[in-house]
Amino acid sequence: MPDLDRTDARLLLALCETPRATGVDLAARLEVSRNTVQSRLDRWDRDEVLGGYDRRVSPRSLGLPLLAFVITTVDQRRLAEVTESLAGIPEIVEVIGLSGPSDLLIRIVAADTDDLYRVAGLILDVDGVERTNVSLAMQELVPYRTHQLLRRAATD
Asked: Which of 34, 62, 74, 125 gets the most CB atoms within 10 Å of its CB?
């Protein structure tokens, strides 16, 4: 059973269109009560349905325009230690555990190629990291999105 129902999806779509809308505005637009809007917002906070504001900040605006992905193989017995060490590197914005021949997909941002080289070196210096393969992102062709999924959920 999904965590978000049709009303949730409609409310999220309205917030996508007008992020600063008030509860009163949203209730009027969706033709639901203010209490319904507020209870949904409260539940999303409690259940951590929405990501933090930092997910919306473009690293480019922080002077980090380069995006790279590092496919990483690690000593499986040291995965927790490796993950903790990687979390301490500010330029690492995401680490995803993988199945298959590689263990981690690391998303990093950097100021330039020299900075990218430095960050890649920091990853290699982590005890338990066995091998890396760095790929520079050339262009974001389809940015992260859930809008189409919300539209589908709002009409189901």
From this structure: 74
Calpha distance 66→108 (Å, rounded): 8
Half-sphere exposure in the Cβ direction for 55 (13 Å, CA): 7
Tokens of 42: 């409260």
13 to 28, 40, 107, 151: CA distances (angstroms): 14, 13, 27, 7
Q: Which helix (H) or strand (E) holds 122?
A: helix 113-124
Provide the 3-class DSSP secondary structure of residue 22: coil
DSSP 151: H
Helix (H, G, I), strand (E, B) or coil at 47: coil
In 3-state terms, what secondary structure has residue 36? Answer: helix
Percent of the chain clearing pLDDT 90 (strictly above): 88
pLDDT one-digit tens code per residue, 72-88: 999 999 999 999 999 99
